[in-house]
């Protein structure tokens, strides 16, 4: 396994639209394992392949308290199960140190393939539902900061670019 580098905003590669996985084979499982190791090391609850510069529709998540329940989403999709919205503080490993409240659908039905290429479906709410919507945005080249005002986006961009200069 390997820990992969996580791209940071405003890296233009984060804007790439990911392609569907054609067959879930050992190469894909290798990517999944590396993404899981990267996510656990970075202490995230989710990671989209886009964030590690792999432009395939693959997401890993772990919503458990003990970090012992890895969930693999290949070619994921979702539908809303009600019009209710939840407002939750979101963060992103690609936008380190910034947290903002966003509105997302509160109840969704997720469908995806697992690491064996089998289709499954799960009804989710709360943080898990928010996380799925956040990760699927990544696969479309979208980031949570896109929902914020231009002013906030510029502030975040400047601070991250400044931090990066200091750490190089
Ligand atoms: O670790 C993460 N926490 C989080 C909290 C609220 C809403 C979404 C997330 S996802 C984020 C990891 C990440 O950047 N995934 O893309
Ligand atoms: Ni993210």
Q: Report the bound ligands by name, code or SMILES.
A: ligand GNR, nickel (II) ion
Main-sheet strand order equals: 1-2-3-6-7
Uncertain regions: pLDDT < 50 for 5+ in a row?
none
What kind of sheet is the major sheet?
A: 5 strands, antiparallel
Task: Give the number of DSSP strands.
Answer: 7
How confident is the prediction overall: mean pLDDT?
97
**What helical percentage do the residues reach?**
25-40%
- Share of residues in strands: 25-35%
Order of SSEs: HEEEEEEEHH
* Rough outline: globular
Number of helices: 3
Any overview of this molecule?
The protein is α+β, with helices and mostly antiparallel strands. It is built from 3 helices and 7 strands; from the N terminus they run αβββββββαα. The mean pLDDT is 97. The structure holds ligand GNR and nickel (II) ion (NI). Nickel (II) ion binds next to helix 2.
Write a concise synopsis of the structure shown.
The protein is an alpha+beta fold and 168 residues long. It has helices spanning 26-42, 126-139, 150-167; strands at 46-48, 58-61, 71-80, 85-90, 100-105, 107-113, 119-125.
